[in-house]
């Protein structure tokens, strides 16, 4: 029997920024987030993350650790310094090798979690459920 992974449509959906430099990862995340009725936008570099966060209003960022232009851990430090982003949830994503290289740096920057690649619907669902339980009716 197949389990239903979708969420009830909330009045105020979670607003998510996905930061990754690979188009295939962005497409996958977009499809997954649609299943949970999230509003989302994409950023392909660390600098673009900072600009989009300044211009937009987001609840959660999935942030790849090895972004071009500015590494993820540097972006996290800058995000945390901004009063506008107080309360923003940041989940770092990385492959095993990238996590080994950058993981401790991201964790020292006060992130809300760390996901190993490959990402999938169950991992994203757990992050959303843990951080925004009001989205899920269980």
Detailed description of the structure:
With 138 residues, this protein is an alpha/beta fold. Helix content is 41%, strand content 18%. It is built from 5 helices and 5 strands. The protein has a 5-stranded parallel β-sheet with strand order 2-1-3-4-5, with helices on both faces. β1 (15-19), α1 and β2 (39-43) form a beta-alpha-beta unit. The longest helix is centred in the first third of the chain and has 13 residues, at 23-35. It is globular.
Summarize the structure.
The protein is an alpha/beta fold.
What structural class do the secondary elements suggest? alpha/beta
Mean pLDDT: 83
What would the principal axes of the Cα set say about the shape? globular
Residues in helix, %: 40-55%
The share of residues in extended strands comes to 15-25%
Number of helical regions: 5
Q: Strands across the major sheet, in which order?
A: 2-1-3-4-5
Give Rg in angstroms: 14 Å
Tell me the series of helices and strands, N- to C-terminal.
EHEHEHEHEH
Major β-sheet, in short? 5 strands, parallel
Regions with little confidence, pLDDT below 50 for 5+ residues = none
**First-last Cα distance:** 18 Å
Number of DSSP E strands:
5
């Amino acid at each position: 029997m197949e389990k239903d992974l979708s969420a009830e449509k909330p009045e105020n959906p979670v607003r998510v920024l996905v930061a990754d430099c690979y188009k295939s990862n962005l497409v996958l995340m977009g499809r997954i987030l649609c299943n949970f009725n999230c509003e989302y936008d994409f950023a392909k570099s660390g600098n673009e993350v900072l600009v989009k966060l300044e211009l937009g209003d987001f609840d959660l960022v999935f942030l790849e650790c090895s972004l071009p232009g500015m590494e993820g851990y540097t972006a996290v430090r800058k995000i945390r310094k901004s009063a506008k982003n107080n309360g923003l949830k940041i989940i770092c994503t990385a492959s095993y090798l990238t996590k080994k290289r950058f993981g401790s740096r991201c964790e020292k920057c006060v992130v809300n979690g760390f996901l190993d690649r490959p990402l999938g619907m169950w991992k994203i669902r757990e992050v959303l459920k843990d951080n925004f339980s009001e989205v899920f009716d269980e």
